[in-house]
Amino acid sequence: MSDTPINLEALRQRIDELDNDILRLISERAECARNVAEIKTQDDPQAVFYRPEREAQVLRRIMELNHGPLDSEEMARLFREIMSACLALEQPIKVAYLGPEGTFTQQAALKHFGESAISLPMAAIDEVFREVEAGAVNYGVVPVENSTEGVINHTLDSFMDSSLRICGEVVLRIHHHLLVSETTRRDKVSRIYSHPQSFAQCRKWLDAHYPQAERVPVSSNAEAARLVKTEWHSAAIAGDMAAKLYGLTRIAEKIEDRPDNSTRFLIIGNQDVPMSGEDKTSIVVAMRNQPGALHDLLEPFHRHQIDLTRLETRPSRSGVWNYVFFIDFKGHHEEPRVSAMLEEVRLRAAEVKVLGSYPQGVL
To answer: Cys staple from 86: which of 33, 61, 269, 287, with CB 3.0 to 4.6 Å?
Structure first.
């Protein structure tokens, strides 16, 4: 027993020494980042500082080298924040996202770019596209599919008329909570606000626990949280960011019907992303209205052994072709086998548009 205080003090001293080393090394890394910015600017005043493929490679390497006791994803998140802060020394990244503040899309933006990025809320998905196209921001973040409710068609449709490229992806585990304010009478909740998709994702739980409560759909979960602040008989379904932003209390946690509920978000920008080693490609294909069109489209993927991860059909907006396919597959369009496959698809399709090749989501 007498050795315990001495051992504890020795451990604290060692932690202090390690903190000093960590501080010194982070500062050295930040100085290197600043030197990189100076060199890039000398060569090209319009240089792009954020390199999605480089960041993905660094994070994958950190996860491979990690041996604990911290989880590999937790270690990667720590390095993400270091990289975000260092990048801000070079040039702070401006990111538009589907708002308002407190949405899962903002959470996805911060997960991908780190807390040092400047995130700007937009009222609609097409506004996110517009801000990036105009050069007002560097990148945009938009939801594209949910594991429970399927694709977000508005995002897919926006790509049809846009010249923007997909630069990355983020997959976010979605946890919904039932939130109330300090003035809510918890035994008198008769109205629940949320986004329609959240209601759909929590339908069974609501049927079991609040079958009589009025369900009021609103534009976002963050808006639902804001409304609850002003009403004594209401609750909201929203996530952690909205709860923190509006000072709400969770009276029920993780009420989604499926524990694996997640949403995939796309990073949109103006740059082509080089190969990172583990990439995806997204394309839009317009096919002629004829028998066997889908088979003709998919046959080259099978023959070249290209792994499809998503296939969605949307009605054509031009009226010329009856249907348009959105396809995600593993691989980069600059890889020889992928390039050969795309050439074959172009010969069979009315139109093929490569939306972008980008690193597969690391976190």
So the answer is: 33
pTM of the model: 0.89
- What homologous superfamily does CATH list for 21-42+49-90? Chorismate mutase (1.20.59.10)
Radius of gyration of the chain (CA): 24
Q: Closest Cα to residue 326, out of 151, 167, 168? A: 151
Neighbours of 98 (CB within 10 A): 27
DSSP annotation of 259 reads T
Active site residue 265: yes
Catalytic one of 155, 263, 281, 301: 263
Q: Could you confirm whether domain 177-252 is CATH 3.40.50.1000? A: no
28: number of Cβ within 10 Å: 10
Residue 329 designated active-site: no
- Among the listed residues 265, 301, 326, 329, the single catalytic one is 265
Beta bridge mates, 36: none
Structural domain boundaries of the chain?
21-42+49-90, 94-172, 177-252, 279-359
Selected from 1.10.10.10, 3.30.43.10, 3.40.190.10, 2.40.110.10, the CATH number assigned to the domain covering 94-172 reads 3.40.190.10
Average the pLDDT over 207-214 and give the result. 96
Angle CA 39–55–156, to nearest 5: 115
Residues 25 and 11: their CA atoms lie apart, in Å, by 21
Is the predicted pLDDT of residue 288 greater than 90, yes or no? no
C-alpha pair distances (Å), 180 with each of 96, 242, 246, 251: 29, 11, 10, 7
